[in-house]
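P.,

For your records, the input lines for the assembly:
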Amino acid sequence: EVQLQQSGAELVRPGTSVKLSCKVSGDTITAYYMHFVKQRPGQGLEWIGRIDPEDDSTKYAEKFKNKATLTADTSSNTAYLKLSSLTSEDTATYFCTRGFRFFDYWGQGVMVTVSS
Amino acid sequence: EIVLTQSPTTIAASPGEKVTITCRASSSVSYMYWYQQKSGASPKLWIYDTSKLASGVPNRFSGSGSGTSYSLTINTMETEDAATYYCQQWSSTLFTFGSGTKLEIK
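Structure tokens returned:
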């Protein structure tokens, strides 16, 4: 069974960065694109971007191009999302998911709270 | 970027009632995808390629549409269907979600 296991909740200071992980089990990470999705409290889903772990190529939604960086480590079957210059607007749950046209498996989500 | 507009934003339905949620795209898309999300949980793939039910989805659900107009229909509402539903499209390597429709039990 495919599972996406995300790292734990983060409390971070404004202006700093945070790196979230998403480990894939039950399949190889190179089988699909890996994506990250943002959900602010009580709000909808926003696609951040995707990485192709096969060649490390990335695509980002326009609003996240200077905010998010996606990487992948095929040796550990893990994808990463780094968020920089954090503000209160980045307080949200971040999900990892996989797929080419749609998203079939999702991580459990990780809550990132930006607060001084 | 293709914008997806869902309607209604919120809807309450009685058990046994028929429910339809619509998703309109700002430009034509080839397929629509739908997700169900319950409070505190991750989204679940519900319908893919416009009308195909994901594994385990009850057949009271159906999806249809083409071009810029798509819909998710529940033939007979059940209490377990209360959730938020999101549509999603993929085009030109970019993905967008609709703003969601919250379905409640009346």
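Two observations worth noting. Chain A touches chain B at residues 35, 37, 44-47, 50, 59, 61-62, 95, 97, 101-104, 106-109 (CB under 8 Å). The mean pLDDT of chain A is 97.

Regards
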